[in-house]
Write a structure and sequence with these properties.
Shape: globular
Order of helices and strands: EHEHEHEEHEHEHEHE
Number of helices: 7
Helix content: 40-55%
Length: about 240
């Protein structure tokens, strides 16, 4: 995909990796649809990023996702790229997992991207091309106590993404994945945690996310994935060796 002049949807664009990706795409001449739940933040960003469009959407609400894609198409006339970045972690041991929370995490991390893909695919097929980048995680290949829900949701996203890549290649639509490591964002602060009143101990690892990779570094890899369209991109090459774990 040629970045200058392209129209790209970025979910979770109000902060962290999503924000840095939107800023970099804008700097490179793309038109970015900024998607998140925070309307005030998006409105401010729209004023800062040239040719951007703020669209408030809940990535666990299927009608909201479809409406968002329709709004972007109506505004720009096309959609060249989709970055499924919105996501959330949940810290809970197997015994502590609350099924309702697991379901919400799975909806956001897996089904949200699926519905967004379903909404943009017909548009991209009609155009004859398009690129979808799903943001995964190195934890998909790891066994971190307390993070089975997040890890399993990202493993599911791998299956969805790699299969979609095979299915859509004939239509000129490329599906890629980017695997960040620990990144210096509010991801750790925003994670869900098992209900302490139900005996949870917060047994998962305590991590100082401020010591992680800069989100700008991940954003550069996401833009590279949009431009090149290969199947998988790892922030650190050593992460490739974790695939068979």
């Amino acid at each position: 995909m040629v970045i200058p002049g392209s129209v790209v949807i970025v979910t979770g664009a109000s902060s962290g990796i999503g924000l840095c990706t939107a800023q970099l795409l804008t700097k490179m001449g793309a038109k970015v649809a900024l998607v998140a739940r925070s309307g005030d933040t998006l409105a401010k960003l729209q004023k800062e990023l040239q040719d951007s469009l703020a669209v408030v959407a809940d990535m666990t609400d299927w009608d909201s996702i479809r409406s968002m894609v329709h709004t972007v198409r109506e505004h720009y006339g096309c959609i060249d790229g989709l970055v499924n970045n919105a996501g959330k972690a949940y810290e809970a041991t197997i015994e502590q997992i609350e099924p309702d929370v697991f379901e919400e995490i799975f909806k956001l991390n897996v089904l949200g991207p699926v519905v967004a893909m379903q909404a943009v695919i017909p548009i991209m097929r009609e155009q004859g091309s398009g690129t979808i980048v799903n943001i995964n995680s190195g934890t998909a290949f790891m066994r971190i106590p307390g993070y089975s829900v997040y890890s399993s949701s990202k493993r599911a996203l791998i299956g969805v993404s790699l299969t979609a890549r095979e299915e859509l290649a004939k239509d000129g639509i490329l599906v890629s994945q980017v695997y960040p490591g620990m990144t210096a964002t509010n991801f750790g602060v925003n994670k869900a945690v098992a209900d302490l009143e139900k005996g949870a101990t917060g047994s998962g690892p305590v991590r100082d996310y401020s010591k992680g990779d800069a989100p700008e570094m991940v954003a550069e890899l996401i833009v590279k994935a949009l431009a090149e369209g290969d199947a998988e991109y790892f922030v650190h090459e050593r992460m490739r060796t974790m695939e068979n774990r």
